[in-house]
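Do me a favour: review this protein, sequence plus structure tokens, and tell me how the chain folds. Record follows.
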Amino acid sequence: MPPVPAASVDKAALARARRGRNIALAIGLVLFVVLVYGVTLVRMGGHVASRPL
């Protein structure tokens, strides 16, 4: 059997898709960090900076 030729791959389209996934992942990670930070502040209370050490 002769080898099957590889399908024509648009490298620019693959790069755009990869970049889009990376940006979406970065935005999701930043939102998660902001959410955890916000929940931490709410659980500690609003006056955590003025409490005595």
